[in-house]
């Protein structure tokens, strides 16, 4: 039985994101993700102005007059949401946890996809594959995807991004548009990222929280690693501690961003302290300029 507060969250996300998709993101999504290419539709009799290279010579020879092949854009895509549910996703110092922000962003992407008659699938991972929802269409399916992201209780707490990307390649036969949603606080995943990026249109969604960049000076604090359970006591009033903390996190983030650039993977950076709509819209418009 799904708790009432989860049902309320799903309903709120549905209302909020449907409005965003209707007003803004459906058109942006369509302009960026246009489909796989052209597929054969039918043959028709040649008309003046048609391309000579489109003539179907077999049909022309059989009918005794010229016919051409007619093509249409193959619109349907498969969108995969690959979502990190490790322990660090259950953190947030502002309005919401990172996991809740991930669910709402994924809802916008999923509703945009189904509005354009694309399929949406889901992979939830930690240090193991926790859940796989095969790609399908329809609003009911998207609501199930949102429910799984919000309500699913993972068994693992650590992060294995390489495992998730390997699984993506295994369960998808064709190229997909895949959004990898994580804070990317995991082990090295350089090689599998490069492999997945060659096969799929892979987009990284990096979720962060302000407290991961800067630590307030509040005296002695007991910290627990949400993925390993390890605890340490720190003196947050020590300026050297805060400076080292901020430097380490900044260097890790910059290293990850360099990896994305080197692998030709676009990155959408969102934070629990800011509206995600601006970052998502910026991504769509940057991609649209490149497509042109």
Provide the descriptors you would attach to this structure in a database record.
single chain, two-stranded antiparallel sheet, 8 helices, alpha/beta, 10 strands, Rossmann fold, 292 residues, six-stranded mixed β-sheet
The total of helices stands at: 8
Biggest sheet features:
6 strands, mixed
What overall form do the CA principal axes indicate?
elongated
Helix-strand makeup class: alpha/beta
Strands side by side in the biggest sheet: 5-4-3-6-7-10
Unreliably modeled segments: none
Content of β-strand: 15-25%
Q: Which CATH class of the largest domain? A: Alpha Beta
Q: Tell me the helix content.
A: 40-55%
How many separate domains make up the residues?
2
The assigned CATH architecture of the largest domain is 3-Layer(aba) Sandwich
CATH T-level fold name of the largest domain: Rossmann fold
Instruction: Return the string of H and E elements.
Output: HEHEEHEEHHEHEEEHEH
Mind telling me the C-alpha Rg? Answer: 23 Å
Mean of the pLDDT scores? 86
State the total count of DSSP E strands: 10
Q: CATH-wise, what's the superfamily of the largest domain?
A: von Willebrand factor, type A domain
């Amino acid at each position: 039985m799904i708790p009432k507060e989860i049902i309320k969250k799903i309903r709120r996300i549905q209302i909020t994101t449907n409005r965003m998709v209707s007003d803004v993101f459906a058109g942006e999504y369509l302009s960026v993700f246009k489909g796989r290419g052209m597929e054969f539709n039918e043959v028709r009799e040649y008309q003046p102005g048609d391309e000579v290279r489109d003539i179907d010579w077999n049909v022309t020879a059989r009918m005794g007059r010229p016919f051409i092949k007619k093509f249409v854009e193959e619109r349907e895509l498969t969108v995969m949401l690959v979502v990190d549910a490790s322990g660090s996703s259950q953190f947030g110092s502002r309005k919401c946890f990172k996991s809740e922000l991930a669910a709402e962003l994924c809802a916008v992407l999923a509703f945009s996809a189904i509005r354009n008659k694309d399929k949406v699938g889901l992979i939830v991972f930690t240090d193991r594959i926790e859940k796989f929802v095969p790609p399908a269409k329809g609003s009911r399916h998207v609501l199930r995807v949102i429910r799984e992201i919000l309500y699913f209780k993972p068994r693992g707490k650590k992060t294995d991004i390489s495992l998730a990307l390997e699984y993506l390649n295994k369960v998808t036969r064709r190229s997909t548009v895949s959004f990898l949603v994580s804070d990317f606080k995991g082990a090295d995943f350089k090689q599998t990222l490069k492999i997945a990026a060659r096969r799929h249109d892979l987009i990284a969604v990096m979720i962060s929280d302000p407290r991961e960049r800067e630590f307030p000076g509040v005296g002695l604090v007991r910290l627990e690693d949400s993925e390993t359970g390890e605890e340490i006591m720190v003196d947050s009033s020590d300026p050297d501690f805060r400076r080292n903390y901020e430097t380490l996190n900044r260097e890790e983030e910059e290293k990850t961003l360099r990896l994305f650039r080197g692998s030709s993977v676009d990155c959408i950076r969102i934070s629990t302290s800011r509206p995600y709509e601006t970052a998502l819209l910026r991504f769509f418009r940057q991609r649209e300029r490149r497509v042109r």
